[in-house]
């Protein structure tokens, strides 16, 4: 496994959601491992006092005007200097997470991105790991409201087409090679599908790992 000294940057974008982000930061503060730093992008004005009092490194980027998902995380990536970079939704809850175990699939040099399995607040598996969109898949999800997961959860890390941007850890080299998220073509949705497709074209793999997180 990776040594605990291997650090990861967690990029969180807040759209006036400081109270929600504070809960996530409290989860992180309760972890026994502190091999991470946090970058919060304040996309809309909010009460930043809620971000004070934490012992782990925490940096704030303030936007003069709102930006989209990809542009915000790309800017945070440029600020970060760690080998691993994760995009994290503010409504994710982390009751327990071993970052060393989470990053273990990166021992394979072909792995570009790793995402844990995400559970709903009720404990159901969210369909965060998906096959690439097609017209028929889109119709099934949107028109017929069929949201069944495209993949069965496996005990060992397994390769998938793409993962939604709830929580994705990237290898810095791979993220940089494909130019990060395409903020010109995508503002808020399908950035995950696009970046994973481009990584695949560069012979990188995307992996889902059975480390459970909870989304509200």
Automatic annotation (TrEMBL):
Signal sequence segment: none
MF GO annotations: glycosyltransferase activity
Organism of derivation: Propionivibrio dicarboxylicus
Record has Transferase as a keyword: yes
Lineage: Bacteria, Pseudomonadati, Pseudomonadota, Betaproteobacteria, Rhodocyclales
Name of the protein: Glycosyltransferase, GT2 family
Sequence similarity: Belongs to the glycosyltransferase 2 family.
InterPro entries the UniProt entry points to: Nucleotide-diphossugar_trans (IPR029044)
Pfam family, one: Glyco_tranf_2_3
Keywords, in A-Z order: Glycosyltransferase, Transferase
């Amino acid at each position: 496994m990776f040594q605990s000294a291997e650090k990861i940057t967690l990029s969180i974008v807040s759209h006036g959601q400081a109270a929600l982000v504070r809960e996530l930061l409290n989860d992180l503060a309760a972890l026994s491992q502190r091999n991470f730093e946090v970058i919060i992008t304040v996309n809309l004005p909010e009460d930043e006092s809620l971000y004070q009092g934490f012992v782990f490194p925490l940096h704030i980027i303030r936007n003069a005007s709102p930006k989209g998902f990809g542009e915000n995380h790309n800017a945070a990536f440029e600020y970060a200097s760690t080998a691993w970079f994760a995009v994290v939704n503010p409504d994710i809850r982390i009751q327990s997470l071993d970052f060393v175990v989470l990053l273990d699939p990166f021992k394979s040099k072909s792995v570009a991105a790793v995402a844990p399995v995400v559970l709903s607040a009720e404990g159901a598996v969210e369909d965060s790991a998906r096959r690439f969109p097609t017209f028929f898949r889109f119709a099934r999800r949107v028109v017929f409201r069929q949201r069944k997961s495209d993949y069965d959860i496996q005990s060992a890390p397994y390769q998938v087409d793409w993962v939604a941007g709830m929580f994705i850890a990237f290898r810095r080299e791979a993220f940089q090679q494909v130019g990060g998220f395409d903020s010109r073509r995508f503002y808020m949705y399908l950035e995950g599908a696009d970046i994973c497709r481009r990584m695949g074209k560069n012979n990188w793999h995307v992996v889902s790992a059975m480390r459970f997180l909870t989304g509200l």
